[in-house]
Design brief:
Layout: E1 2-8, H1 23-41, E2 45-50, E3 65-68, E4 71-74, E5 81-83, H2 88-99, E6 106-108, E7 111-113, H3 115-125, E8 133-138, H4 148-162, E9 168-174, H5 191-198, H6 204-222, H7 233-245, H8 256-263, H9 271-281, E10 286-296, E11 301-310
Parallel strand pairs: 1-9, 2-8, 2-9, 3-6, 4-7
Antiparallel strand pairs: 1-11, 3-8, 4-5, 10-11
Helix pairs in contact: 2-4, 4-9
Protein backbone atom coordinates (compact mmCIF):
# COMPACT_ATOMS: atom_id res chain seq x y z
CA UNK A 1 0.00 0.00 0.00
CA UNK A 2 1.26 3.48 -0.85
CA UNK A 3 -0.08 6.90 -1.73
CA UNK A 4 0.88 9.63 -4.18
CA UNK A 5 -0.89 12.78 -5.32
CA UNK A 6 -1.48 14.87 -8.42
CA UNK A 7 -3.51 18.08 -8.11
CA UNK A 8 -4.60 19.75 -11.32
CA UNK A 9 -6.71 22.73 -12.24
CA UNK A 10 -9.33 22.29 -14.93
CA UNK A 11 -10.79 24.90 -17.27
CA UNK A 12 -13.33 25.03 -20.13
CA UNK A 13 -10.89 27.42 -21.79
CA UNK A 14 -8.14 24.77 -21.96
CA UNK A 15 -7.50 24.08 -25.64
CA UNK A 16 -10.28 26.50 -26.62
CA UNK A 17 -8.90 29.95 -25.73
CA UNK A 18 -5.22 30.81 -26.18
CA UNK A 19 -3.94 32.17 -22.84
CA UNK A 20 -1.21 34.10 -24.66
CA UNK A 21 2.56 34.08 -24.51
CA UNK A 22 4.17 30.79 -23.50
CA UNK A 23 1.61 29.90 -20.82
CA UNK A 24 -0.11 27.10 -22.72
CA UNK A 25 3.21 25.48 -23.61
CA UNK A 26 4.35 25.77 -19.97
CA UNK A 27 1.12 24.18 -18.71
CA UNK A 28 1.54 21.29 -21.13
CA UNK A 29 5.16 20.84 -20.03
CA UNK A 30 4.02 20.63 -16.40
CA UNK A 31 1.31 18.15 -17.33
CA UNK A 32 3.97 16.01 -19.02
CA UNK A 33 6.00 16.10 -15.79
CA UNK A 34 2.99 14.91 -13.81
CA UNK A 35 2.23 12.17 -16.34
CA UNK A 36 5.81 10.94 -15.99
CA UNK A 37 5.46 11.02 -12.20
CA UNK A 38 2.25 8.99 -12.41
CA UNK A 39 3.79 6.46 -14.79
CA UNK A 40 6.70 5.94 -12.38
CA UNK A 41 4.32 5.53 -9.43
CA UNK A 42 2.24 3.01 -11.45
CA UNK A 43 -1.01 3.23 -9.47
CA UNK A 44 -3.32 0.27 -9.14
CA UNK A 45 -6.24 2.66 -8.75
CA UNK A 46 -6.80 6.41 -8.98
CA UNK A 47 -9.09 8.21 -6.53
CA UNK A 48 -10.13 11.59 -7.89
CA UNK A 49 -11.73 14.33 -5.80
CA UNK A 50 -13.66 16.72 -8.01
CA UNK A 51 -16.59 19.13 -8.20
CA UNK A 52 -19.59 19.24 -10.48
CA UNK A 53 -20.95 22.30 -12.25
CA UNK A 54 -24.69 21.55 -12.01
CA UNK A 55 -24.33 19.02 -14.81
CA UNK A 56 -24.48 15.69 -12.99
CA UNK A 57 -25.17 16.46 -9.31
CA UNK A 58 -28.22 18.68 -8.87
CA UNK A 59 -30.60 19.79 -6.13
CA UNK A 60 -32.65 16.63 -6.64
CA UNK A 61 -29.99 15.30 -4.24
CA UNK A 62 -27.06 17.50 -3.18
CA UNK A 63 -24.73 15.65 -0.79
CA UNK A 64 -21.61 17.31 0.63
CA UNK A 65 -19.56 14.31 -0.59
CA UNK A 66 -20.31 11.17 -2.57
CA UNK A 67 -18.30 8.20 -3.79
CA UNK A 68 -19.22 6.82 -7.18
CA UNK A 69 -19.25 3.01 -7.29
CA UNK A 70 -20.37 3.33 -10.90
CA UNK A 71 -20.18 6.48 -13.01
CA UNK A 72 -20.94 7.97 -16.40
CA UNK A 73 -19.45 11.01 -18.09
CA UNK A 74 -21.87 13.70 -19.26
CA UNK A 75 -19.55 14.59 -22.14
CA UNK A 76 -19.20 18.33 -21.61
CA UNK A 77 -16.38 20.34 -23.21
CA UNK A 78 -15.28 17.37 -25.28
CA UNK A 79 -14.63 15.06 -22.34
CA UNK A 80 -15.63 11.41 -22.29
CA UNK A 81 -19.31 10.49 -22.40
CA UNK A 82 -20.97 7.33 -21.15
CA UNK A 83 -19.92 4.49 -18.79
CA UNK A 84 -16.52 4.88 -17.15
CA UNK A 85 -13.93 2.37 -15.85
CA UNK A 86 -14.76 2.75 -12.16
CA UNK A 87 -13.24 0.24 -9.77
CA UNK A 88 -16.59 -0.53 -8.15
CA UNK A 89 -15.28 -3.00 -5.56
CA UNK A 90 -12.68 -0.53 -4.29
CA UNK A 91 -15.22 2.32 -4.28
CA UNK A 92 -17.63 0.35 -2.11
CA UNK A 93 -14.84 -0.73 0.23
CA UNK A 94 -13.63 2.86 0.64
CA UNK A 95 -17.18 4.01 1.27
CA UNK A 96 -17.64 1.51 4.09
CA UNK A 97 -14.24 2.25 5.62
CA UNK A 98 -14.94 6.00 5.66
CA UNK A 99 -18.37 5.55 7.25
CA UNK A 100 -16.77 3.35 9.91
CA UNK A 101 -14.65 6.36 10.92
CA UNK A 102 -17.74 8.45 11.60
CA UNK A 103 -17.60 10.57 8.43
CA UNK A 104 -20.91 10.76 6.57
CA UNK A 105 -20.43 10.26 2.83
CA UNK A 106 -22.97 9.18 0.21
CA UNK A 107 -22.57 6.37 -2.29
CA UNK A 108 -23.85 6.49 -5.85
CA UNK A 109 -24.26 3.58 -8.22
CA UNK A 110 -24.66 6.02 -11.11
CA UNK A 111 -22.64 9.15 -10.41
CA UNK A 112 -22.72 11.56 -13.33
CA UNK A 113 -19.42 13.42 -13.70
CA UNK A 114 -18.54 16.39 -15.88
CA UNK A 115 -15.27 18.03 -16.92
CA UNK A 116 -14.49 18.71 -13.25
CA UNK A 117 -13.59 15.02 -12.94
CA UNK A 118 -12.96 14.02 -16.54
CA UNK A 119 -10.55 16.71 -17.72
CA UNK A 120 -7.78 15.94 -15.17
CA UNK A 121 -8.16 12.18 -15.77
CA UNK A 122 -7.79 12.78 -19.51
CA UNK A 123 -4.78 15.03 -18.84
CA UNK A 124 -3.17 12.06 -17.07
CA UNK A 125 -4.40 9.05 -19.01
CA UNK A 126 -5.68 10.34 -22.35
CA UNK A 127 -9.08 10.36 -24.03
CA UNK A 128 -10.90 7.05 -23.77
CA UNK A 129 -8.73 5.93 -20.84
CA UNK A 130 -9.31 2.51 -19.26
CA UNK A 131 -7.37 3.08 -16.02
CA UNK A 132 -9.47 2.00 -13.00
CA UNK A 133 -10.54 4.91 -10.80
CA UNK A 134 -12.92 5.96 -8.06
CA UNK A 135 -14.66 9.36 -8.34
CA UNK A 136 -15.34 11.32 -5.16
CA UNK A 137 -17.73 14.24 -5.61
CA UNK A 138 -16.92 17.23 -3.40
CA UNK A 139 -19.67 19.84 -3.43
CA UNK A 140 -18.24 23.26 -4.30
CA UNK A 141 -21.14 25.36 -5.58
CA UNK A 142 -24.40 23.91 -4.21
CA UNK A 143 -25.04 26.14 -1.22
CA UNK A 144 -25.08 25.83 1.73
CA UNK A 145 -21.60 24.36 2.02
CA UNK A 146 -20.10 22.45 4.92
CA UNK A 147 -17.49 24.13 7.15
CA UNK A 148 -14.04 23.76 5.65
CA UNK A 149 -12.82 21.55 8.49
CA UNK A 150 -15.21 18.82 7.34
CA UNK A 151 -13.37 18.64 4.02
CA UNK A 152 -10.08 18.03 5.78
CA UNK A 153 -11.60 15.37 8.01
CA UNK A 154 -13.23 13.58 5.08
CA UNK A 155 -9.93 13.62 3.19
CA UNK A 156 -8.07 12.22 6.17
CA UNK A 157 -10.67 9.47 6.56
CA UNK A 158 -10.28 8.50 2.92
CA UNK A 159 -6.50 8.55 3.24
CA UNK A 160 -6.61 6.17 6.18
CA UNK A 161 -9.08 3.96 4.31
CA UNK A 162 -6.86 3.93 1.21
CA UNK A 163 -3.94 2.75 3.31
CA UNK A 164 -5.97 -0.29 4.35
CA UNK A 165 -6.14 -1.38 0.71
CA UNK A 166 -3.50 -3.63 -0.73
CA UNK A 167 -3.04 -1.17 -3.58
CA UNK A 168 -0.93 1.69 -4.85
CA UNK A 169 -3.39 4.59 -4.75
CA UNK A 170 -2.98 7.81 -6.72
CA UNK A 171 -4.96 10.68 -5.21
CA UNK A 172 -6.02 13.27 -7.78
CA UNK A 173 -7.50 16.68 -7.00
CA UNK A 174 -9.38 18.73 -9.57
CA UNK A 175 -10.26 22.37 -9.16
CA UNK A 176 -9.51 25.91 -10.16
CA UNK A 177 -7.87 28.47 -7.93
CA UNK A 178 -9.33 31.99 -7.97
CA UNK A 179 -11.94 32.46 -10.69
CA UNK A 180 -15.34 34.10 -10.80
CA UNK A 181 -17.72 32.64 -13.40
CA UNK A 182 -21.47 33.31 -13.13
CA UNK A 183 -22.97 30.57 -10.94
CA UNK A 184 -26.73 30.35 -10.32
CA UNK A 185 -28.06 29.91 -6.80
CA UNK A 186 -31.23 28.01 -6.00
CA UNK A 187 -32.42 30.13 -3.09
CA UNK A 188 -34.13 33.27 -4.31
CA UNK A 189 -33.89 32.44 -8.01
CA UNK A 190 -36.89 32.47 -10.40
CA UNK A 191 -38.69 29.14 -10.79
CA UNK A 192 -37.17 28.34 -14.23
CA UNK A 193 -33.68 28.65 -12.75
CA UNK A 194 -34.65 26.51 -9.77
CA UNK A 195 -36.07 23.84 -12.09
CA UNK A 196 -32.84 23.82 -14.11
CA UNK A 197 -30.89 23.29 -10.88
CA UNK A 198 -33.11 20.35 -9.93
CA UNK A 199 -33.41 18.54 -13.26
CA UNK A 200 -30.99 19.40 -16.06
CA UNK A 201 -30.80 16.94 -18.92
CA UNK A 202 -30.00 18.88 -22.10
CA UNK A 203 -29.80 17.48 -25.61
CA UNK A 204 -26.34 17.31 -27.16
CA UNK A 205 -27.28 20.30 -29.30
CA UNK A 206 -28.42 22.38 -26.32
CA UNK A 207 -25.31 21.47 -24.35
CA UNK A 208 -23.04 22.37 -27.27
CA UNK A 209 -24.81 25.70 -27.75
CA UNK A 210 -24.47 26.59 -24.07
CA UNK A 211 -20.80 25.64 -23.98
CA UNK A 212 -20.18 27.61 -27.16
CA UNK A 213 -21.56 30.75 -25.54
CA UNK A 214 -19.36 30.23 -22.48
CA UNK A 215 -16.26 29.80 -24.64
CA UNK A 216 -17.21 32.90 -26.65
CA UNK A 217 -17.45 34.84 -23.40
CA UNK A 218 -14.00 33.70 -22.26
CA UNK A 219 -12.58 34.55 -25.69
CA UNK A 220 -14.10 38.02 -25.46
CA UNK A 221 -12.35 38.50 -22.10
CA UNK A 222 -9.07 37.30 -23.63
CA UNK A 223 -9.53 39.75 -26.51
CA UNK A 224 -10.21 42.64 -24.16
CA UNK A 225 -13.79 43.02 -25.40
CA UNK A 226 -15.42 42.09 -22.11
CA UNK A 227 -14.46 42.76 -18.52
CA UNK A 228 -14.14 40.07 -15.88
CA UNK A 229 -13.53 40.01 -12.16
CA UNK A 230 -9.76 39.69 -11.80
CA UNK A 231 -8.14 36.57 -10.40
CA UNK A 232 -6.50 36.95 -7.00
CA UNK A 233 -2.89 35.84 -7.23
CA UNK A 234 -2.18 36.72 -3.60
CA UNK A 235 -5.05 34.48 -2.45
CA UNK A 236 -3.92 31.69 -4.79
CA UNK A 237 -0.42 31.77 -3.34
CA UNK A 238 -1.85 31.70 0.19
CA UNK A 239 -3.53 28.39 -0.63
CA UNK A 240 -0.52 27.01 -2.47
CA UNK A 241 1.64 27.82 0.57
CA UNK A 242 -0.64 25.70 2.78
CA UNK A 243 -0.40 22.74 0.40
CA UNK A 244 3.37 23.11 0.16
CA UNK A 245 3.83 23.30 3.92
CA UNK A 246 1.43 20.53 4.87
CA UNK A 247 -0.14 22.82 7.51
CA UNK A 248 -3.59 21.60 6.52
CA UNK A 249 -5.29 22.34 9.83
CA UNK A 250 -4.96 26.00 8.80
CA UNK A 251 -8.00 25.47 6.55
CA UNK A 252 -10.23 24.88 9.59
CA UNK A 253 -10.45 28.60 10.24
CA UNK A 254 -11.27 29.60 6.68
CA UNK A 255 -14.71 31.17 6.38
CA UNK A 256 -16.88 30.06 3.45
CA UNK A 257 -18.11 33.55 2.58
CA UNK A 258 -14.63 35.03 2.80
CA UNK A 259 -13.36 32.26 0.53
CA UNK A 260 -15.75 33.49 -2.18
CA UNK A 261 -15.04 37.15 -1.47
CA UNK A 262 -11.30 36.63 -2.00
CA UNK A 263 -11.19 33.77 -4.50
CA UNK A 264 -14.37 34.28 -6.52
CA UNK A 265 -17.63 32.41 -7.06
CA UNK A 266 -15.96 29.07 -7.91
CA UNK A 267 -13.08 29.24 -5.44
CA UNK A 268 -14.61 26.45 -3.37
CA UNK A 269 -13.43 24.01 -6.03
CA UNK A 270 -10.23 24.07 -3.98
CA UNK A 271 -12.07 21.88 -1.48
CA UNK A 272 -11.03 19.00 -3.72
CA UNK A 273 -7.36 19.95 -3.26
CA UNK A 274 -7.88 20.22 0.51
CA UNK A 275 -9.42 16.74 0.58
CA UNK A 276 -6.68 15.16 -1.53
CA UNK A 277 -3.78 16.75 0.34
CA UNK A 278 -5.42 15.81 3.65
CA UNK A 279 -5.66 12.21 2.44
CA UNK A 280 -1.98 12.23 1.47
CA UNK A 281 -0.99 13.70 4.83
CA UNK A 282 -2.16 10.55 6.61
CA UNK A 283 0.94 8.82 5.20
CA UNK A 284 3.22 11.35 6.92
CA UNK A 285 5.11 14.41 5.74
CA UNK A 286 5.25 14.76 1.98
CA UNK A 287 7.43 16.41 -0.65
CA UNK A 288 6.29 18.33 -3.72
CA UNK A 289 7.86 16.98 -6.89
CA UNK A 290 5.91 19.23 -9.27
CA UNK A 291 4.89 22.72 -8.14
CA UNK A 292 3.64 25.10 -10.83
CA UNK A 293 1.23 28.03 -10.85
CA UNK A 294 0.10 30.58 -13.45
CA UNK A 295 -2.11 33.67 -12.97
CA UNK A 296 -3.83 33.34 -16.37
CA UNK A 297 -5.42 36.75 -16.80
CA UNK A 298 -6.84 35.92 -20.24
CA UNK A 299 -8.79 33.06 -18.67
CA UNK A 300 -9.63 35.06 -15.55
CA UNK A 301 -8.30 32.20 -13.43
CA UNK A 302 -5.40 30.95 -11.40
CA UNK A 303 -4.15 27.62 -12.74
CA UNK A 304 -2.12 25.18 -10.67
CA UNK A 305 -0.42 21.84 -11.27
CA UNK A 306 1.28 19.94 -8.45
CA UNK A 307 2.41 16.44 -7.55
CA UNK A 308 3.55 15.10 -4.20
CA UNK A 309 4.65 11.93 -2.50
CA UNK A 310 5.33 10.93 1.15
CA UNK A 311 8.93 11.56 2.15
CA UNK A 312 9.27 8.03 3.45
CA UNK A 313 8.23 6.55 0.07
Amino acid sequence: MSLALAALSHAPSFGNVDPGGTIFAEINEALAEVRSFVEDFAPDVTVIFGPDHFNGVLYSMMPPFAIGAQAVGVGDYGTGEGPLPVDSETARELHALILAQGIDIARSERLEVDHGVMQPLEFLYGSGFTNPFVPVFVNAIGKPLTPMARIRLMGEALGRAAQQLDKRVLLVASGGLSHNPPIPEYDGSPEPVQQRLVSYSPSKEDRAAREGKIIEGIQAIADGLRSSAPLNEEWDQKLMKVFRSGALTDVDGWDNDQFIAEGGSAAHEMRSWIAAYSALSTAGDYSMVVDRYWPVKTWGAGFGITAAIPRNA
